[in-house]
Amino acid sequence: xxxxxxxxxxxxxxxxxxxxxxxxxxxxxxxxxxxxxxxxxxxxxxxxxxxxxxxxxxxxxxxxxxxxxxxxxxxxxxxxxxxxxxxxxxxxxxxxxxxxxxxxxxxxxxxxxxxxxxxxxxxxxxxxxxxxxxxxxxxxxxxxxxxxxxxxxxxxxxxxxxxxxxxxxxxxxxxxxxxxxxxxxxxxxxxxxxxxxxxxxxxxxxxxxxxxxxxxxxxxxxxxxxxxxxxxxxxxxxxxxxxxxxxxxxxxxxxxxxxxxxxxxxxxxxxxxxxxxxxxxxxxxxxxxxxxxxxxxxxxxxxxxxxxxxxxxxxxxxxxxxxxxxxxxxxxxxxxxxxxxxxxxxxxxxxxxxxxxxxxxxxxxxxxxxxxxxxxxxxxxxxxxxxxxxxxxxxxxxxxxxxxxxxxxxxxxxxxxxxxxxxxxxxxxxxxxxxxxxxxxxxxxxxxxxxxxxxxxxxxxxxxxxxxxxxxxxxxxxxxxxxxxxxxxxxxxxxxxxxxxxxxxxxxxxxxxxxxxxxxxxxxxxxxxxxxxxxxxxxxxxxxxxxxxxxxxxxxxxxxxxxxxxxxxxxxxxxxxxxxxxxxxxxxxxxxxxxxxxxxxxxxxxxxxxxxxxxxxxxxxxxxxxxxxxxxxxxxxxxxxxxxxxxxxxxxxxxxxxxxxxxxxxxxxxxxxxxxxxxxxxxxxxxxxxxxxxxxxxxxxxxxxxxxxxxxxxxxxxxxxxxxxxxxxxxxxxxxxxxxxxxxxxxxxxxxxxxxxxxxxxxxxxxxxxxxxxxxxxxxxxxxxxxxxxxxxxxxxxxxxxxxxxx
Length: 807
Prior knowledge:
7-stranded mixed β-sheet, Rossmann fold, elongated, Helicase, Ruva Protein, domain 3, alpha/beta, 5-stranded parallel β-sheet, 27 helices, 48% helix
């Protein structure tokens, strides 16, 4: 008869939430909770890390997927950032001294756009007004005065020199090669042939007079050049005055507006100087010249780009510090880039094509990045480390940095960096970075650990209730009535695998509520009920349990041999969990043990064929320790045993089957048959104590489904470690079957209690004579081991005699 003392009562198999206990009256008129629940430890770490102003106190947020990390972080940071000052705007402007190194300007939030617009308006005004000034009658008259004076003076010099030349027998003539002095005979200019026909003495005299005149001619030419130079300077000065008249007032207005910013004042002075040095760009373009420019494909507006302002980071719309979430942290997306544009079959760039990265936009605030995405993108983590260490952001061309490109590009001035970086990732990535990157611990000194569970108490239930209200309002979902709220809380307990805890996997819970809303809509219900939640959970199982049904069908047809009735020696039903990622279910397994005399000990067939993992192998080795401690204190353990998972063709790991393996071994040793309607799960130590395992709900339900499919006879059930009772959140149909005595759940503290349930035979404790009572499990096991030891001794003695006889 199976002892009832080990049976678990139905009340302990599932945590049932009473809505009245926590005053859950539905979410229709309840107040929504804005904030984070169940993560006090993580919030404390975030407050500390983000509150520290020293370098290196960036935060790594660790936690499993779906625990609400990102939602929590964004809400926390936005609340914190709203209380802080808005960081300044950052602008890139042309460096007129070195165009390849654009200058950066720092202005209060909103002032960057004002400067950009003011500069744009000023240049547009200059482009309209300066040509008008050059076309004015006043400018034309003054220019004609300068030109006329030049012409008259040149004429006077030429006329004076002509008279001197005439008195010396020469005239001044223009030739294709310039101005030339030609000798005159009478009133006729001599040709070269006539000149060479003259007597030598006459030629020499003419040549001497020509040499003297050439010296005078050089002086006259020099004077003309000086006059032209002076006229040109006067024209340029006139142009400067015209432009300065138009520009000066505008620049003064801008200087007055930005008088508190020395960097802007210095920039404006350079702009004025550059405009005065580039007067030709503002002068009217003649029709033919404009046509040539258009046919060449050149944009006349490009020459005025140098006076634009590139508002690199615009914080004018921010209220408080920025919070930037970068979902694609490539090198360029993080640290900015210098874009290029095609022109004349080549690529060109300038300071207006500098684009900001997430780190620039988060400067003065907070940058949130997924750690896995950061590590997946080449050079992103390396670049982030370098800039956090140097406290400045330097825009680099990635191709140039790698040596793939040697073209000349811009090298913008770096921007000072003041940012808090929040990396979000799994605990595994955190520990790997901690182990393999020495810089990581110096840059991310704070870890915020997100828990997967929170205590089931009144305070957390109220917070959880507030989360449901906020979620329903945000998603425009039907309100949950009190029964639905209780059902969601029960499901949260099952997800946590703890009766006294609630899961913080809010992403998965939110999906349950969305699906429940769908089922409520099909019923035209005004609210989500417990039945809607139950349908949502059942439909999720139905969509995902195809493989589970196939395996169960194979067992029902006898393809996989799995007995749920009768008894058998050395064969025990074990339980394992198959995790499909989105769904996990329990699978019954058959374990058999075969024994005989020998010194081999316990041989794990799974390990021998390399299908057993290290944890499973550990569990097998523990069994040998238990047998030695329990039965081999007076003589060596003389046993050769084979243990195997029957019809298992995949890798096995974990020690949760060690109790089933030990039960099969003890059954084989004692000769006591084991009930095949009972399955057992649990880890066992060398003292024979059953230890808690994971997936206990799925394991119990997996065996229950198989027994139910074959027909419950009232003798079937599952043995679990007593320490797993707190993890039980079984399905309601399983609880109902236990309540009706058609299925059972037993909780054992040690392997003796488990064997009593499996064999319906007392386990037996050692008496004062250090012997087990007759007709007990342990007595039969010890007796069998002693018999095998004697048998082995006889065999060894016989072998020794035969050996000596042969010798």
